[in-house]
Design goal:
It is found in: Cytoplasm; Membrane. By secondary structure, the protein is an alpha+beta fold. The protein contains 12 helices and 17 strands. The protein has 3 domains: 125 residues, Phosphorylase Kinase, domain 1 (2-Layer Sandwich), CATH 3.30.200; 185 residues, Transferase(Phosphotransferase), domain 1 (Orthogonal Bundle); 127 residues, PH-domain like, CATH 2.30.29. A 7-stranded antiparallel β-sheet has the order 14-13-12-11-17-16-15, covered by helices on one side. Strands 1-2-3-5-4 form a 5-stranded antiparallel β-sheet. The protein binds adenosine-5'-triphosphate.
């Protein structure tokens, strides 16, 4: 737990009281005028963390940790989003927190995560969210390798249903992706992560003072799902979410996003070129729908045209969907988490309370990391060397980087050991440096000793999914479920050859 002086603490608390005082949107142009404070649907309670029994950690974001929490007196279970005040202030995330809080407070749709109440203590802000025990759609795709068209149709239809609502209230989500589509125990979709939303001018929602509308061209979202116009700094539009829906549907059906590549820079190249390939097994309907969602022109994307969502819902891919009763219809069966012991952490996946107040770094799925097989090794090397000049698209892993250092490749791998296997996040940076991070404890497990000389450090690929890194002291064996063993070798060697 961080030590913090009494004076600083008082100041911080005052600051957060002010920070969470929010204003009505009177529909003014440009930015919202200040007016009376509002009453939240989700109240600001005076609870403490001791009022809850904490369970497993659901995950971590760039400025928060989300943990299963059972309220002692009522027995109600929540997903408690815990944000370290000092960290969010330091990382300039205050506006994200405020925005997510005020927006979630007003949204009312079965496909949107519900916010029940908030509270705070000296160190943290807490948001009690509806708990989604089914995990992320992302994990379902990984566990099933890819989804059937029937499964993908169901999930896509639920996302369409909720996007129609979100767009209807004048919000652009801007970060639709399988990681932000959470599933209830019975497998229905709930959209999460409203920290990046952008209200349109017409939005009737109450938003924050100084919120800008459609002029803003800020770069937000996740590399693999970003539409080309965002890369060209065009204003945000509903079309952004429809492009991301197209990418998500493609990922459901194939197991990976359509513009997947070894780095954000290469992904951006493919997005700009609309370098899109459909596998043979796609039905004509699936191919046509994705093609129409991934239209270069945002206003031509299905759902964004004059007929709006009616055109999207009428697409032949959705034939058979009962739109009015979609939330009542049976969802695909969830693939359970693997029961194989992968971690020798004696705490298992339960969460240690002492983590509250620590700096947080997310446990995120890897940035897409596979090389286009058509890319030659010299092209790859030049691409990789250029990567160092590009800032990481998000700041998720900054904790493990020095100022000016960038991530070149990152994947969640299994480190194979004699008795047990461990999940690790392996990060290659342009320093160059190879860092192993424990994703559940969100802690560095140390650097793998780097050498430019392949006699002192070498990578041996034993299959598309297995590779070993040999250093004078030890040999580390890794398994990459995404079968990117060769990509790791190419990426590391391109820096050794520099
Ligand atoms: N209501 C919830 N129920 C179950 N799990 C949740 C819930 N909300 C979030 N999670 C899990 O916790 C993780 C962290 O969520 P959080 O909202 O803090 O950050 P994020 O959206 O993943 O990342 P970032 O804030 O960096 O964009 C998510 O990836 C998700 O798996």
């Amino acid at each position: 737990m961080m030590a913090i002086g009494e004076g600083v603490r008082e100041e911080m608390e005052k600051d957060f009281e002010t920070m969470l005082r929010l204003q009505h949107n009177h529909g003014q142009q440009g930015s919202v005028q200040r007016s009376n404070s509002i009453t939240f649907r989700a109240p600001q309670e005076h609870f403490t963390i001791d009022d809850f029994e904490l369970g497993k950690m659901y995950g971590a974001g760039s400025y928060s940790k989300v943990v299963r929490a059972k309220k002692n007196d009522t027995g109600n279970v929540y997903a408690l989003k815990i944000m370290d005040k000092k960290f969010i202030a330091k990382e300039n995330k205050i506006s994200y927190v405020k925005l997510e809080r005020i927006v979630l407070d007003q949204l009312d749709h079965p496909g949107v995560i519900r916010l029940y109440f908030t509270f705070q203590d000296s160190y943290s802000l807490y948001m009690a969210l509806e708990s989604c025990e089914g995990g992320e759609l992302f994990d379902q795709i990984i566990r099933k390798v890819r989804l059937s068209e029937d499964e993908a149709r169901f999930y896509a239809a639920e996302v369409v249903d909720v996007l129609e609502y979100i767009h209807g209230v004048g919000l652009i989500h801007r970060d639709i992706k399988p990681e932000n589509l959470l599933l209830t125990t019975d497998g229905h979709v709930k959209v999460a992560d409203f920290g990046s939303v952008k209200p349109t001018r017409a939005s009737k929602l109450t938003v924050l003072p100084n919120t800008t509308y459609d002029k803003a061209c800020t770069f937000v979202g996740t590399a693999a799902y970003v539409p080309p116009e965002v890369l060209n700094s065009c204003p945000a539009s509903f079309g952004n979410d429809l492009w991301a829906l197209g990418c998500t549907l493609y990922q459901m059906l194939t197991g990976s996003s359509p513009f997947k590549d070894a780095s954000e820079w290469l992904i951006f190249q493919r997005i700009m070129a609309r370098d899109l390939k459909f596998p043979d097994y796609f039905s004509d309907e699936a191919r046509d729908l994705i093609d129409k969602l991934l239209d270069i022109e945002p206003t031509k994307r299905l759902g964004a045209g004059p007929q709006g969502y009616a055109a999207l819902k009428m697409h032949p891919f959705f034939r058979g969907i009962d739109w009015k009763n979609i939330r009542k219809s049976a969802a695909p069966k969830l693939a359970p988490e693997s029961t194989v012991v992968e971690d020798d952490d004696p705490q298992g996946s339960t969460w240690n309370l002492s983590h509250i107040g620590d700096g947080c770094v997310p446990q995120l799925p890897p940035v897409d990391a596979s090389f286009n097989s058509a890319t030659s090794s010299s092209e790859t090397q030049s691409h990789i060397s250029k990567l160092s000049k590009i800032d990481s698209f998000d700041s998720k892993w900054q904790e493990f980087l020095e100022p000016g250092e960038s991530i070149v490749m990152i994947s969640k791998l299994k480190k194979l050991q004699k008795l047990t296997n461990k999940k690790v996040q392996l990060i290659l940076t342009d320093k160059p440096k190879l860092v192993c991070v424990d994703p559940s404890k969100v802690m560095s497990k140390g650097n793998i000793i780097w050498s430019g000389n392949s006699r002192d450090m070498s990578i041996h690929v034993t299959s598309s999914s297995h590779f070993k890194i040999s250093t004078p002291k030890k040999v580390l064996s890794f398994e990459d479920a995404k079968q990117q063993a060769w990509q790791w070798k190419i990426a590391v060697e391109s820096f050794q050859n520099h």
